[in-house]
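Project outcomes to date are best conveyed with an example. Our students and postdoctoral researchers have been running inverse folding experiments weekly, and each run begins with a structure described purely in tokens. The record below, which covers 115 residues, was selected by the lab manager from last quarter's runs and is presented without edits.
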């Protein structure tokens, strides 16, 4: 992941949880890679699996909080887009880009925009 090769890192993380389905760190890595590739649904699935295995893990809780914040931003952007309030969509994308959640270069995508 540190090299920006998120697809390869995602394949490695998926292999790690195939070998050991209880490997929480593998699920967290899947979530981080999915976020980096703009796949919020895949990230949500991985975080949910990690929480099911070890709900008190601080790393899992931190990733879950970051994911929830991104999901809120995406929801705000969707509502603004549907209401044809395109400035708000852009503001949501800018907020996202400058948030501390951009550690791994996550992509924010919504119809008509890629930031």
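After processing, the design step wrote out the following sequence:
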């Amino acid at each position: 992941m540190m090299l920006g090769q998120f697809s390869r890192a995602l394949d490695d993380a998926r292999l790690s949880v195939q070998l050991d389905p209880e490997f929480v760190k593998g699920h967290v890595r899947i979530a981080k890679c999915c976020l980096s590739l703009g796949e919020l649904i895949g990230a949500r699935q991985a975080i949910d699996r990690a929480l099911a295995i070890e709900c008190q893990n601080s790393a899992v809780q931190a990733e879950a909080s970051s994911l929830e914040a991104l999901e809120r931003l995406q929801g705000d952007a969707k509502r603004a887009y549907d209401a044809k309030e395109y400035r708000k969509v852009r503001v949501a994308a800018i907020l996202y880009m400058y948030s501390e959640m951009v550690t791994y270069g996550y992509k924010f995508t919504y119809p008509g925009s890629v930031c």
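Residues 58-82 form the longest helix (25 residues). Strands lie at 109-110, 113-114. The training component of this project remains on track.
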